[in-house]
Design brief:
2 domains; alpha/beta; binds ligand SAJ; Rossmann fold; five-stranded parallel beta sheet; 15 strands; eight-stranded mixed beta sheet
């Protein structure tokens, strides 16, 4: 769409250009807002970072925020020490505002809906400070047409754009600089002004479009990944039935120049991929494949739980204890939001298993965490749910210690990350999700 056609430019907004934007207020200092605010501060902007959580503000000021994101605290400290970044609870007057607050999904009568309450409280909190010609940018993931609705809701002579964040947790700082960005402006000037800001630190290309297209682009990216993972998970179930090793099959299929199947696993977690596709389902009755993929990925924890239950029943292990390795939603992060591990643990506990949990990356979780030794002590099986680097690097000595502590020597790898030959050599019975040959019997759905 030609942005000029949208014709929202109004001279009363004031005659600003990118050079007039000197002060930026970033609302929400989480995984996206904090690095973005720090990056802008380190690139010469005067930045006010706003968050409603006083404890978080204190730990940012003291440089003590414990986020397991490589390089982040160094970046934040640099920004604070430069004097360009200050953090506080309330917004203040600025030239531009960037909204980076969470947008979870809420379920009402089996229907998913994006919870826009944090967005609207952020918008309400800046409203008293907004002047003609100010720029408001939203980075949070939102359903299509939300930016337009918020623009109408604000009802002010301002510039506005949607610029979705695209960074991968665990690699945020690199991707913040290197990834291309999409900016959807409500008019051409909004898009150009926003581009000016992001150009200060982004090395990738910056593409301009309208807000609804930009909103759709963000949702399409995460949905593409969700659907691809759903396909891999379905292949894993089918390969379990057919006595085929799904990893060998995917690896060989991916030798085709136009095929790139992702990896199966115990389910899709995190606050992005497991959530965002629902925002498309929310706005369209035609999102059938997207809904089916979401349901399939959501079925994986139950599927894994049933595999374990059936296997232990078959082996007749009384009062079984199972050791969970990894409750983070993915490898090498501390984040447990929407982690499939939680659902699997609850399913196993409600089926009479004693569950112990080991995750060297995670600091707090809904259930107690133990160190490796306690976790495997007198255990009957290990269930690997997260592809942490530490699990991949277990040495012969570590595995031997684990072996000697356990009662029964079963290990179930749902991420295909262990050195299976080594574990088998030491005496473990190794089972792989998606390899029917490694299971004595088959799971039901
Ligand atoms: N997963 C699989 N199989 C795979 C890959 C991932 O089961 O082959 C699982 C992971 O274990 C995890 C979940 O999917 O549970 C999601 O992990 P992820 O690494 O695919 O993605 P996120 O949620 O950490 O980050 C995504 C990224 N989006 C894309 O790659 C398209 C990131 O760039 C976005 O910025 C982020 O969502 C977001 O904030 O939207």
């Amino acid at each position: 769409m030609n942005l000029e056609d949208k014709g929202n430019i109004n001279d009363d907004k004031g005659d600003i250009d990118g050079k007039n934007i000197k002060k930026i207020c970033v609302i929400g200092l989480g995984y996206i807002g904090l690095p973005t605010a720090s990056m802008l501060a380190n690139h010469g902007y005067e930045v006010v970072g706003v968050d409603i959580d006083s404890k978080r503000l204190e730990s940012i000021k003291n440089g003590k925020l414990k986020i397991n994101e490589p390089g982040l605290m160094t970046l934040v400290k640099g920004a604070i020490n430069s004097g360009n970044l200050k953090v506080k609870r309330e917004p203040e007057e600025a030239d531009a505002y960037i909204i980076c607050v969470p947008t979870p999904v809420i379920w009402k009568e089996n229907t998913p809906k994006c919870d826009l309450s944090y967005i609207y409280s952020a918008i309400d909190s800046i409203k008293p400070y907004l002047h003609n010609g100010n720029l408001v940018i939203i980075e949070s993931t939102i359903p299509p047409k939300t930016t337009e609705k918020i623009f109408k809701y604000l009802n002010k002579k301002i510039y506005m754009a949607y610029c979705p964040e695209r960074v991968l947790p665990g690699n945020i700082l690199k991707e913040l600089v290197e990834n291309d960005r999409i900016i959807g402006g409500i008019d051409k000037k909004s898009a150009k002004l926003s581009k000016e800001i992001y150009s200060s630190f982004v090395d990738g290309n910056i593409y301009l479009t309208d807000p609804t297209t930009a909103e759709m682009v963000k949702l399409m990216e995460n949905t593409y990944r969700d659907v691809n993972i759903a396909l891999a998970n379905e292949f894993a179930k089918i390969c379990n039935d057919l006595d085929v090793n799904v990893y060998e099959a995917i690896n060989l299929a991916n030798k085709h120049p136009r095929v790139n199947i992702l990896n199966p696993g115990p389910g899709v977690g995190g606050h992005c991929i497991s959530v965002d596709p629902w925002f498309i389902v929310e706005v369209s009755n035609n999102a059938e494949l997207i809904r089916a993929a979401r349901d399939l990925n959501d079925s994986m924890p139950k599927y894994v739980c049933n595999l374990i239950i059936n296997e232990f029943k078959r082996m007749n292990i009384p009062d079984p204890k199972i050791s969970i390795f990894g409750v983070a939603y993915k490898g090498n992060v501390e984040d447990t939001r929407e982690s499939p591990g939680k659902k699997i643990i609850e399913c196993l506990m409600s089926n009479g298993f004693n569950v112990s949990i080991y995750d060297p990356y995670v600091k707090t979780f809904d259930y107690p965490l133990e160190d490796l030794e306690d976790c495997v002590n007198n255990s009957d099986g290990i269930l690997v749910l997260t592809d942490h680097e530490k699990f991949k690097r277990f040495k012969k000595r570590d595995i031997l210690n684990i072996y000697n502590s356990m009662r029964n020597k079963i290990v179930v790898d749902t991420k295909n990350i262990l050195n299976h030959n080594l574990w088998k050599k030491i005496g473990f019975e190794v089972k792989l999700l998606g390899d029917g040959t490694s299971w004595r019997g088959k799971s039901n759905k």
